[in-house]
Amino acid sequence: MQHDYDIIIVGANMVGATFACALADNGLKLLLIDTHKPTFNWPPASYDLRVSALTAASSALFEKLGIWPHLIRERPSPFRALHVWNQDAENKLSFDSADTGAAYLGHIVENRRIQQALHQALAYRRSVELKLGISLDALNIDKDAATITTSDKQNITAKLVVGADGARSKVRQLANIHSTGWAYHQQGIVAHVKTEKSHQQCGWQRFLNTGPLAFLPLDDSRSSIVWSAKDDYANALMAMDKAAFESEINTAFQNELGQVTLDSERAAFPLKAQHVHDYVSPRIALIGDAAHSIHPLAGQGVNLGLLDAACLADIIETAIDNKRDIGREHTLKKYQRARKTGNLAMLAATDGLNKLFSNNHHLLNWARNTGFAAIQGIPQTTSLFMRLAAGK
Fold it and tell me: Is residue 249 predicted with pLDDT exceeding 80?
């Protein structure tokens, strides 16, 4: 059967565009569609409120795809250590890249600059066609092909449709792939701040009863904050004027880096966990948030999605080398087996940490304080936290 494309990728965000880049030079004909049409003409000195903490594995993937040299020019901020402490604990946990023999734990990079670098790379690939500003309206699967209908009334066929269209995935919905999820009744507040003391190229995170507050180092000496706060408190924080918000964040952060001043707008987004029962079905595969969403306290959501993209691309390359149908469920199941267990483990770890620390029960307070005092003295436990911080 003749197909219009080998693969249709729904979602041109970081994960979907990474997947397209990974397969762009393998003789396949790819179509990448997205409802959103990004613009990359922001003022040079401006900073995106949304940033990602890219692990060494993600950096290596971008290096392999030829993206990393461009990102290095676009002011990534390396972070070499992570300091974590509890609201009630006197002990602070510190995880240093030197303990692993690496120069850094990772890099903080603006989301829009990652997407820009990927789209610029795809613009030079004749094998990839981008259709932005159109949406997926319908999906039909038969034995030999997947057919999508787009908002501009086109019917397009492919051997495989990959859903990289986020937590509210239309591909997942139309393919009748079920998921389990729950709301955290928290919102993630993001902003940029100035601190009186240097961030020292370190990440800082304090666990509060209302949710964790993280400071991520930026290259211009500022920090990007992610404050995961319970809904009522988050709404109050978003309603505060600049002075009141600064007072609140200084109290919450215990002057760890001296006086904190707000240096940007604020934005908030609801937090939830979600995981699909199946990553694949005949001629369908889900990657990134379309397959799984986790709490942002470990900063690993994007990294998991990038690993999904790399894994699925490798499996498709192997199938091509062995002249197998890339849309067969038997082929796609290899991707599910490779990624599902690890993603579930990270979801469980972040969910457990959030539940453990985002409450004020006196018995859990005692357990947390005791645990914080003990963890630094147990190499195996410290190693576990280091792997969590590194996204392994």
Answer: yes
Torsion angle defined by CA atoms of residues 175, 180, 183 and 188, in that order, rounded to the nearest 10 degrees = -60
Lowest mean pLDDT among 4-8, 124-128, 244-248: 124-128
Looking at residue 378, its pLDDT comes to 43
CA atoms within 13 A on the CB side of 201: 13
Question: What 3-state DSSP class applies to 288?
Answer: helix
What is the C-alpha separation between 149 and 140, in angstroms, rounded?
A: 9
* Cα distance between residue 105 and residue 107, in whole Å: 7
Backbone angles phi, psi at 77, to 5 degrees: -110, 115
Q: Are 152 and 134 in contact (CB under 8 A)?
A: yes
Q: Residue 25: helix, strand or coil by DSSP? A: coil
Question: Structural domain boundaries of the chain?
Answer: 5-39+111-181+273-350, 68-109+183-271+357-390
Are 333 and 285 spatial neighbours (Cβ–Cβ below 8 Å)? no
Among positive and negative, which fits the CA dihedral 256, 258, 264, 268? positive
- At residue 353, what is the residue type? L
The CATH class given to the 68-109+183-271+357-390 domain equals alpha beta
Query: What number of other Cβ atoms are within 10 A of residue 268's Cβ?
Result: 18
- Give the Cβ contact number of residue 369 at 10 Å: 16
**Tokens 């059967």, residue located:** 1
At the second CATH level, the architecture of 5-39+111-181+273-350 is 3-Layer(bba) Sandwich (3.50)
Stretch among 88-102, 203-217, 219-233 having the lowest mean pLDDT = 88-102
Strands 223-230, 213-217: pairing kind: antiparallel
